Amino acid sequence: MSRPGSLRSSALVLPPSVAISDLKTHCLNCSVRELCLPVGVDREGLHQINALVTERLRFKKGDTVYRAGDPFSALHAIRVGSCKTTVLGEKGHEQVAGYHMVGDIVGMDGIGTDRHSGQAQALEDTEVCVLPFDRLEELARQVVPLQRNLHKVLSAEITRDQNVMLMLGSLRAEERLAVSLLNLSQRYHARGYSATEYVLRLRRVDIGSYLGLQLETVSRVLSRFQAAGLIQVQGRVVKLLDLPALKQMVGQRC
User: What is the pTM (predicted TM-score) of this model?
Assistant: First the structure.
């Protein structure tokens, strides 16, 4: 039976933001390895990545992983939980830039300037593997599959930004929300969770911020989808009742 998209872990229970550099990182046996940078890396390469990842940090819901202006030194691979990333808009308001879950990498905004331009915040109890970027670059030159994966991650980030710009510039509110729901469906499914039932970790106001919509518009469109039998919403749990209709709305093949 498929599992709803609530993320669980058997990781060690530690105080928030405590480094566990004195423990093994277990990339070799990590359950999300195939979603992260080590995918396709041979056993010798995994041992080298194991040596690279000497620190994991654990955050409580609401804790900040890094802030805008912080010096950039490492990428953070989400091992347990989820985060949102935000940037400050032109008028000083906080704009949601992304939602990141298990296997995703955050912190790439700091590569170009050596300082983070945005903030990452834990949406639930979250654990990240710290990837020191200078050492990661050096190792990537030695381990070709790792270098390829790093390039793919950076390319995916660029593509994501382009897709968001396209969506905000050309799609109606209903289409934006449908695209978002389907995207989450695909991402949860890739991680072994249900493609039709998952938890919306982002608040509706954050969803609106990310999609360029007002909170009232997000609530109205969700209600409209529910009335049409496309979805069912109970608190933050969303069930996609009619995937073909949602896909048709945004021009995807069923």
Answer: 0.82
